């Protein structure tokens, strides 16, 4: 039986990581920032603090990251707030199926909890989830397992019996470190040999994830 499932949000529930990168590319063009796509890819799955550290490591401590991040965020929210954020194919059907089976559901996202709740609310999906964990609620970001272990604790779920649906390398690493069952649905990055070793399953979309769960 499927007892509990924990979802990442960006790149899993919403097609948001691609859109965030597009906003950063516009900022990079405006300020002539080189290599921003690689910087964004390195930051997939980590929280705001870790992303800041990645940017300073790449561009130097004098890099005005917070100014640029604020501009990119304003650009993103001006375009996609209020339910305009595109959902990933199959997410509504998958959540409905799991809810019908009384599976415990959580979101564990590196994005701030307030933002996660708002985007899920705007997308009409918040009511499916029993708990929402944001990246601002844990000290250590993915790939550390803290955020997933917190989700299990709030769900009263055993990690070894809990599935995690992720799109990022750091998310899969975190789920594996938590002794959970990682499923990768690639978004911006394809699985490496390391990730193929860590992930229990890899599916092209959430449609195949639902088909997999229906066999359980």
Radius of gyration: 17 Å
SSE string, helices as H and strands as E: EHHHHHEHEHEHEHEH
- Based on secondary structure, the structural category is alpha/beta
Total number of strands: 6
Helix content: 40-55%
Q: Beta fraction of the residues?
A: 5-15%
Number of helices: 10
Query: For the largest beta sheet, what order do the strands appear in spatially?
Result: 3-2-1-4-5-6
The overall pLDDT average reads 97
Description:
With 216 residues, the protein is of the alpha/beta class. The chain is 48% helix and 11% strand. A six-stranded parallel beta sheet has the order 3-2-1-4-5-6, with helices on both faces. Helix 1 crosses helix 4. The termini are close together.
Top keywords for this entry?
single chain, 216 residues, alpha/beta, 6-stranded parallel sheet, 6 strands, globular
Fold blueprint:
Layout: E1 4-7, H1 17-31, H2 36-42, H3 48-59, H4 65-80, H5 91-100, E2 104-108, H6 113-122, E3 131-133, H7 146-155, E4 162-166, H8 169-177, E5 181-184, H9 193-198, E6 201-202, H10 206-214
Parallel strand pairs: 1-2, 1-4, 2-3, 4-5, 5-6
Summary of the model, kept short:
The chain has 216 residues and is an alpha/beta fold. The protein contains ten helices and six strands, in the order βαααααβαβαβαβαβα. Helix 1 packs across helix 4 (65-80) and helix 5 (91-100) runs parallel beside helix 10.
